[in-house]
Write a structure and sequence with these properties.
Helices cover about 20% and strands about 45% of the residues. By secondary structure, the chain is of the alpha+beta class. The chain folds into 2 domains: about 35 residues, no CATH class; about 130 residues, Nucleoside Triphosphate Pyrophosphohydrolase. The strands form 3 sheets. The chain has a 4-stranded mixed sheet with strand order 7-4-9-8, sandwiched between helices. Strand 1 and strand 2 form a beta hairpin. It is elongated.
């Protein structure tokens, strides 16, 4: 088993409403010291919504940093004072215009473990019904309804290229087969 590093100090470089940028100084077991710059996060929640016909709801949105559209499962950061499950329900409504009778946690992953301590919890949403909640004013979404085979085809074609959606699909797809 690998030995743990020892944190010697930690400071905030800058903060925003979604995460904190930190600089930690550490020492490895052999005595060498180093610095680690990273995104400190409260985590995120991603939802794979399944309608009554077994179709999955995804959203197409513009991603500013990559300057292109991205087809994704609904997702968002956990806001202070909220739980992962609460944020999953909120993001589902904001991004798809639907609420769910049932949200079941399917798994957890880290989207970029060399850059952030963020843990994303993935939920399967069932019992969907239309809701009145709308996206934030800086968000715009196109709703897609896809079969699992169509999701696979969108991944193969490179249309779904968002890493978090790819990871969530790996977690959820086997559970859909077993109807969890």
């Amino acid at each position: 088993m690998l030995k743990r590093w020892t944190k010697e100090s930690s400071r905030i470089v800058t903060e925003n409403p979604w995460w904190t940028y930190r600089l930690d100084r550490f020492r490895i077991p052999g005595g060498a010291q180093g610095e680690y710059h990273f995104v400190d996060s409260r985590g995120s929640s991603m939802v794979v919504p399944v309608d009554g016909d077994g179709r999955l709801l995804l959203v197409n949105q513009y991603r500013y940093l990559c300057d292109r559209e991205s087809v994704e499962f609904p997702c968002g950061g956990v806001k202070e004072g909220r739980t992962h499950a609460e944020m999953a329900a909120i993001e589902l409504e904001e991004e798809t215009g639907h609420s769910a009778e049932r949200l079941v946690e399917a798994g957890t992953f880290n989207p970029f473990n060399g850059v952030t301590n963020e843990m994303c919890r993935v939920y399967i949403a069932r019992g969907l019904r239309p809701s009145d909640r709308r996206p934030d004013e800086t968000e715009e979404f196109e709703l897609l309804r896809c079969t699992p085979d169509e999701v696979d085809a969108l991944i193969t074609a490179g249309t779904i290229w968002d890493g978090m959606s790819l990871a969530a699909w790996c977690i959820v797809k086997p559970k859909l087969r077993s109807n969890e």
